[in-house]
């Protein structure tokens, strides 16, 4: 069990060491992007300082000349109080900078951001002062002051001073955190040394455990020998009791040579000698066991002390890891703050420029929109005039179309009247011709012709009345009345075309009627009757009424066709549903094919 515990502890220590190495590598990787971010921030600061310098060039010429002389002598620009504050920050940063290489010689740290920004700003100012036409004294004009960027009235210079001070504070914080990281690394190395010592002590403990195991094996052997000794003693006592009994019971046995007793005595002596030697060995083993127990006690005390040290080292390592994580988080927060402040500083000026551009663009857009509104109003007026003209022309065209339709209907009516008159005159001429051909004395035939003519005229008038009613839509109301009165047995019902069939097997009534009547039924009539069963023939008479007419209601005709088609489809569906009841039946059309009188028995099982 102790070996297992030691292995687990060793594995934990190795895992902790690996984690610490990974954290250290991650910290090194994080420092590289932070340095690159710092360089980017320095470039942004340089750009901002350059912009601020160009704005500050609009101050008095005397101050600019003084700042130029001081810049040539000292190597840094001190033209404004802002730059003086920057030089103070520069001094503080340069005082702190020499201490960093001594603290962390492994890292080749560059100059701070404030130093780099001041160096670039001083060089930029030298260039600006060396150029004659760009100086304010040459032009004789003064640039306006920069506008305030905050509600409190802070200008760009004050914001720059605050940001420079903040950058110096962040650099100091970074140096402090780097120092803490070095201290944590030293503590981690100390814990590694202690772990090495603990590992060496664990080797000694393993040797002591091996010796203790050997002592336990010897004790087990001693116990076995002791058990054998007790068993031999019992056997010896039994043998002695048996020998005494034999000696008392019979004297004849005593007179005999005691060879078995002598052999037993010899065995007893040898066993007693072995017992004595084993007792000596047992005493030696006991002494060795006591020594090993004392040594194991001392080693166990050492192991417990080492375990305590190991636990303390593990706690210290955990604390160091936590501190490292805290340091890493603080470094990340500081770098994020620096980047955020730099981005905010650059975004303020860009926002100002963008707002100015947007204001100019909005003014231009307003002017363009006003021009567009004027042009659109003109176009709207022109379109309204065009709309009025087109509306007048459309109304005139509609009136002309209505007039033409009325004239066309009148012409159709007159044409129908003329056709009727022409037909009547043709009939009269035909009758006169026939009358002249047949003679004047055929009065009976004339009377029959007159009667037939009157009957046909009355039929024509009735048909004309029906056509007029159909055009008005009266036939729909009559059809509804007939449908409500007769139900499904109306004139349009396909069931009215069928006959009753007796399925009992006897001669049906319709067969007797067909046999009594004319025997001219053919296979074509049967097929036509079958088709009419599926399609229905009630609409044929109504369709014939429309033949020979020039005008009819197309909408009514279309609706009538749709109604008939719908009823036809419904009838087909009913027939198909009813066919399931006649599955297994067979149709007998032999008599029909033979040309017999009427149809035979229709269904046969």
UniProtKB/TrEMBL annotation:
<feature type="compositionally biased region" description="Polar residues">
    <location>
        <begin position="132"/>
        <end position="142"/>
    </location>
</feature>
<feature type="compositionally biased region" description="Polar residues">
    <location>
        <begin position="101"/>
        <end position="119"/>
    </location>
</feature>
<feature type="compositionally biased region" description="Polar residues">
    <location>
        <begin position="284"/>
        <end position="303"/>
    </location>
</feature>
<feature type="compositionally biased region" description="Basic and acidic residues">
    <location>
        <begin position="81"/>
        <end position="94"/>
    </location>
</feature>
<feature type="compositionally biased region" description="Basic and acidic residues">
    <location>
        <begin position="421"/>
        <end position="438"/>
    </location>
</feature>
<feature type="compositionally biased region" description="Basic and acidic residues">
    <location>
        <begin position="1"/>
        <end position="24"/>
    </location>
</feature>
<feature type="compositionally biased region" description="Basic and acidic residues">
    <location>
        <begin position="171"/>
        <end position="202"/>
    </location>
</feature>
<feature type="compositionally biased region" description="Low complexity">
    <location>
        <begin position="120"/>
        <end position="131"/>
    </location>
</feature>
<feature type="compositionally biased region" description="Basic and acidic residues">
    <location>
        <begin position="323"/>
        <end position="413"/>
    </location>
</feature>
<feature type="compositionally biased region" description="Low complexity">
    <location>
        <begin position="231"/>
        <end position="243"/>
    </location>
</feature>
<feature type="compositionally biased region" description="Acidic residues">
    <location>
        <begin position="439"/>
        <end position="450"/>
    </location>
</feature>
<protein>
    <recommendedName>
        <fullName>M protein repeat protein</fullName>
    </recommendedName>
</protein>
<feature type="region of interest" description="Disordered">
    <location>
        <begin position="1"/>
        <end position="158"/>
    </location>
</feature>
<feature type="compositionally biased region" description="Basic and acidic residues">
    <location>
        <begin position="210"/>
        <end position="227"/>
    </location>
</feature>
<feature type="compositionally biased region" description="Basic and acidic residues">
    <location>
        <begin position="32"/>
        <end position="42"/>
    </location>
</feature>
<feature type="region of interest" description="Disordered">
    <location>
        <begin position="479"/>
        <end position="517"/>
    </location>
</feature>
<feature type="compositionally biased region" description="Low complexity">
    <location>
        <begin position="257"/>
        <end position="283"/>
    </location>
</feature>
<feature type="region of interest" description="Disordered">
    <location>
        <begin position="171"/>
        <end position="457"/>
    </location>
</feature>
């Amino acid at each position: 069990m102790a070996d297992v515990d030691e292995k687990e502890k060793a594995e934990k220590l190795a895992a902790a060491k690996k984690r610490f190495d990974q954290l250290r590598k991650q910290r090194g990787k994080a420092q590289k992007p932070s340095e690159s971010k710092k360089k980017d921030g320095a470039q942004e600061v340089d750009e901002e300082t350059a912009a601020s310098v160009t704005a500050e060039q609009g101050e008095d010429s005397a101050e600019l000349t003084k700042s130029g002389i001081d810049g040539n002598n000292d190597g840094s620009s001190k033209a404004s109080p802002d730059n003086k504050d920057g030089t103070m920050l520069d001094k503080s940063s340069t005082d702190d900078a020499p201490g960093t290489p001594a603290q962390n010689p492994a890292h080749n740290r560059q100059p701070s951001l404030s130093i780099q920004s001041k160096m670039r700003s001083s060089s930029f100012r030298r260039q600006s002062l060396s150029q004659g036409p760009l100086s304010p004294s040459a032009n004789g004009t003064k640039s306006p002051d920069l506008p305030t960027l905050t509600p409190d009235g802070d200008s760009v210079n004050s914001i720059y001073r605050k940001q420079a001070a903040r950058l110096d504070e962040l650099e100091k914080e970074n140096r402090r955190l780097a120092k803490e990281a070095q201290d944590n690394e030293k503590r981690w190395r100390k814990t590694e040394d202690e772990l090495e010592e603990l590992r060496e002590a664990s080797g000694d403990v393993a040797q002591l455990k091996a010796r203790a195991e050997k002592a336990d094996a010897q004790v087990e052997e001693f116990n076995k020998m002791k058990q054998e000794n007790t068993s031999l003693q019992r056997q010896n006592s039994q043998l002695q009791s048996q020998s005494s009994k034999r000696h008392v019971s019979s004297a004849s046995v005593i007179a005999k040579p005691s060879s078995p007793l002598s052999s037993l005595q010899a065995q007893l002596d040898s066993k007693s000698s072995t017992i004595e030697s084993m007792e000596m060995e047992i005493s030696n083993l006991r002494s060795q066991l006591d020594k090993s127990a004392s040594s194991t006690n001392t080693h166990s005390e050492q192991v417990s002390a080492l375990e305590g040290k190991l636990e303390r080292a593990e706690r210290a390592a955990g604390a160091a890891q936590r501190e490292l994580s805290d340091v890493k988080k603080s470094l990340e927060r500081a770098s994020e703050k620096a980047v955020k402040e730099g981005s905010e500083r650059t975004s303020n000026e860009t926002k100002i420029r963008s707002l100015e551009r947007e204001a100019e663009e909005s003014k231009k857009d307003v002017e363009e929109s006003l021009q567009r509104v004027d042009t659109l109003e003109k176009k709207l007026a022109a379109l309204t005039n065009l709309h009025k003209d087109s509306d007048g022309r459309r109304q005139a065209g509609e009136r002309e179309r209505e007039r033409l339709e009325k004239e066309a209907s009148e012409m159709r009516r007159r044409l129908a009247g003329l056709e009727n008159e022409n037909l009547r005159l043709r009939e009269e001429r035909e009758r006169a011709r026939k009358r002249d051909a047949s003679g004047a004395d055929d009065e009976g035939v004339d009377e029959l012709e007159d009667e037939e003519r009157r009957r046909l005229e009355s039929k024509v008038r009735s048909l004309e009345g029906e056509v007029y009613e159909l055009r008005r839509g009266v036939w729909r109301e009559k059809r509804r009345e007939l449908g409500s009165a007769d139900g499904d047995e109306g004139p349009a019902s396909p069931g009215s075309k069928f006959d009753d069939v007796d399925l009992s097997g006897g001669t049906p009534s319709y067969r007797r009627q067909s046999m009594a009547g004319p025997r001219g039924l053919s296979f074509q009539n049967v097929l036509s009757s079958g088709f009419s069963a599926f399609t229905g023939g009630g609409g044929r008479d109504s369709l014939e009424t429309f033949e020979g007419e020039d005008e009819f209601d197309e909408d009514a005709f279309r609706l009538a066709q749709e109604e008939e088609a719908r009823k036809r489809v419904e009838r087909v569906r009913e027939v198909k549903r009813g066919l399931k009841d006649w599955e297994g039946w067979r149709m007998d059309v032999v008599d029909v094919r033979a040309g017999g009188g009427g149809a035979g028995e229709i269904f046969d099982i």
